[in-house]
């Protein structure tokens, strides 16, 4: 099987079109199409159904794609390990975490890490759905729950709490809740749980103090923590906001501090085969140090 054609096939399967694959490979659409046709001819099997709206893998194409994806993932890992210096960590490091944590906590600390390790090339993917580390969609992840895959190494980073907040404007207009039952009279903003990695009981303000047979309905459901925070800041209502968003909640008022809030354990996660990577080791140690500084008031 021709390696160049397999590389083109992998790019087309990832992109879903000849045009986008050509842009990624710096080839013309016609050149990409010719490579795919030649590969199909050599294999005596169609790899794509061609539609006006794009390309869909055939059964044979899906089989080849799953194999090619695994091969390219292993090659990317091997390349990263080979380029890593014996003396100092260098090379690419792809990190993924949730949108809120990546934006509010991690990104502001990346300058210090990259100043310390300028030869590490970091790419950060913020996504509330979990990327597949075993397929090298990322090298490391910071997740709000323990990994379910057995081939992943995990290190506990921190406990994240989700206190309830409201704006001063909202409390002036609607009053301050003094016990959980009072939330029945208030506007509640919740996280729209649409992904499997959502924090358990993140919407505790919707359930705390609710009497049997009664249902508390939110005024707004949002699938993004940052957007929830902005809604609270605008005076719309009360929501549980993670404590790592300290900068965003400084102007807000914490309500019901005596009611137990939801908690999540954040973990630093990476594949077993990257256990000896210097890039991952220095990034892990940096994060643990920054978490320690936070605990000590730094």
Describe the structure.
This protein is an alpha/beta fold and 298 residues long. It folds into 3 domains: 3-81, Arc Repressor Mutant, subunit A; 87-157 and 265-295, 3-Layer(aba) Sandwich (D-Maltodextrin-Binding Protein, domain 2), CATH 3.40.190.10; 164-260, 3-Layer(aba) Sandwich (D-Maltodextrin-Binding Protein, domain 2). The chain has 9 helices and 12 strands. The protein has a 5-stranded mixed β-sheet. It has a 3-stranded antiparallel β-sheet with strand order 10-7-11. Strands 1-2 form a two-stranded antiparallel sheet. The longest helix has 25 residues, at 59-83. The radius of gyration is 24 Å and the shape is globular. The model has no long low-confidence stretch (mean pLDDT 89).
Summarize the structure.
The chain has 9 helices and 12 strands. By secondary structure, it is α/β, with parallel strands linked by helices.
CATH topology of the largest domain: D-Maltodextrin-Binding Protein, domain 2
Q: What is the architecture of the largest domain at the second tier of CATH? A: 3-Layer(aba) Sandwich
Q: In DSSP terms, counting alpha (H) and pi (I) runs of 4 or more, how many helices?
A: 9
Q: Could you name the CATH class of the largest domain?
A: Alpha Beta
Q: Order of SSEs, N→C? A: HHHEEHEHEEEEHEEHEHEEH
From the N-terminal CA to the C-terminal CA, the straight-line distance is 56 Å
**CATH homologous superfamily heading of the largest domain:** Periplasmic binding protein-like II
Overall outline: globular
How many discrete structural domains? 3
Question: What percentage of amino acids are in beta strands?
Answer: 15-25%
């Amino acid at each position: 099987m021709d390696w160049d054609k397999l590389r083109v096939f992998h790019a087309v399967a990832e992109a879903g079109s000849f045009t986008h694959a050509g842009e990624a490979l710096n080839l013309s659409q016609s050149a990409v199409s010719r490579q795919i046709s030649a590969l199909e001819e050599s294999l005596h099997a169609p790899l794509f159904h061609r539609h006006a709206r794009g390309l869909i893998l055939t059964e044979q194409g899906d089989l080849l794609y799953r194999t090619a994806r695994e091969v390219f993932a292993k090659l990317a890992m091997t390349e990263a390990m080979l380029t890593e210096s014996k003396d100092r960590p260098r090379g690419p490091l792809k990190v993924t975490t949730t949108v809120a944590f990546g934006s509010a906590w991690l990104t502001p600390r990346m300058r210090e890490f990259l100043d310390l390790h300028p030869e590490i090339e970091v790419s950060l993917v913020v996504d509330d759905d979990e990327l597949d580390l075993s397929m090298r969609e990322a090298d490391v992840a910071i997740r709000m729950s323990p990994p379910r895959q057995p081939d992943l190494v995990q290190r506990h980073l921190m406990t994240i709490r989700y206190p309830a907040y409201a704006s001063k404007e909202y409390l002036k207009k609607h009053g301050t809740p003094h016990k959980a039952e009072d939330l029945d009279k208030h506007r509640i903003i919740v996280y729209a749980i649409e992904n499997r990695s959502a924090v358990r009981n993140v919407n505790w303000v919707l359930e705390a103090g609710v009497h049997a047979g009664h249902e508390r309905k939110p005024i707004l459901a949002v699938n993004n923590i940052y957007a929830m925070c902005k809604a609270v800041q605008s005076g719309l209502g009360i929501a549980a906001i993670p404590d790592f968003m300290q900068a965003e909640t400084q102007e807000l008022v914490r309500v019901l501090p005596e009611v137990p809030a939801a908690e999540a354990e954040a973990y630093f996660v990476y594949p077993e085969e990257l256990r000896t990577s210097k890039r991952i080791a220095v990034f892990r140690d940096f994060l643990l140090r920054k978490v320690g500084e936070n605990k000590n008031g730094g």
